[in-house]
Every structure is written in C-alpha cells, then in structure tokens.
C-alpha cells in the first residue's frame, strides 16, 4: 500500500501530471527536431538530438503510464469519469506506441545522422495522438475535477506543501 501512495502523490499534488509534463516536453522537442532535421537544417546533428529526446520522452511516458494507471484504478468503473479516463488511457497508449515505433525505426538514422521519413511520420502521428490525449486528460481534471481539492482560501504554504500550516 505504501508504494501505491508513492505512485499517487500527495492530496492535491498527484504525481501523474509532472510525469506527463516531462513526456510532453521531450516528445514535443523530438518531433520538432525531427521535422527541422528532415527539412535539411543541420540534419546530422538533429538526427541525434531528436532520437535522444524521443528516448527521454519514452522514459517519462513510462512513468506517466504507471502513475496514470494507479489513478485510473481508483476510479469507479462505468462512470462518466471512468469512460473519459479510459479514452485518455487508450489514446495515450497509442501515442506512446507510435513514439516507440519511431524510436525503433529512427535508431538507424541516429547512427547514420539522418532523419528517416517513416520515423518522422510516426513521430508526427504520435504527436497528434499526444495532443488529443492531453486534451482528453485535461477534461479529467478541469471538467470532472479528479484529484482537485478546491480549497481557494488555503494559505499558500499549506497549499504548496501539504501538511504544513500557514500563518494563522
């Protein structure tokens, strides 16, 4: 149970969102670097950079998947929130699979200093899926209110550091 608590994060401070931030940043950088490299601008250097950013994205994507799955398992099955979260889960699995395939196909380009067309197409498709999945994920928080405490008058200290008491 203690590991589960670590994977969930603290009340009002779930661990899943920061992991998604790392994945989104790395996947975005990888996709942009691949596109710019494929356009012929510093292709040899960018072929290495986009692939390394992609590997970092896959690492954060794995962490986001684990922490997201822990959150998903806590949702009551069959509810509108569960349906939204399940759609988000499926779309994000597809995005990560596309990026994973891009990494596999793009490795030769990493070695040779070229951005391959198939790897670029997979990365762009992965980015589209990532964007759609992020949109759906946002509705889990901003529409359904999952893991939101709604404490607008909470002192800044205790809002930032749960368990700490702010000035009285």
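Q: What amino acid sequence fits the structure above?
A:
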């Amino acid at each position: 149970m203690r590991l589960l608590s670590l994977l969930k994060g603290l009340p009002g401070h779930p661990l899943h969102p920061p992991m998604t931030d790392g994945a989104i940043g790395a996947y975005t950088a990888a996709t942009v670097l691949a596109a710019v490299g494929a356009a012929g601008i510093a292709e040899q250097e960018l072929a290495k950079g986009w692939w390394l950013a992609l590997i970092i994205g896959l690492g954060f994507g794995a962490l986001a998947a684990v922490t997201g799955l822990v959150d998903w398992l806590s949702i009551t099955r069959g509810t509108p929130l569960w349906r939204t979260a399940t759609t988000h889960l499926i779309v994000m699995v597809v995005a990560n699979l596309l990026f994973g395939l891009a990494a596999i196909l793009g490795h030769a380009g990493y070695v040779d200093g070229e951005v391959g067309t198939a790897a670029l197409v997979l990365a762009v498709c992965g980015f589209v899926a990532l964007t759609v999945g992020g949109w759906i994920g946002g509705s889990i928080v901003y529409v359904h209110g999952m893991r939101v405490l709604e404490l607008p008058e909470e002192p800044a200290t205790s809002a930032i550091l749960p368990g700490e008491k702010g000035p009285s």
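Q: And what stands out in the fold?
A: The chain has one domain: 13-146.
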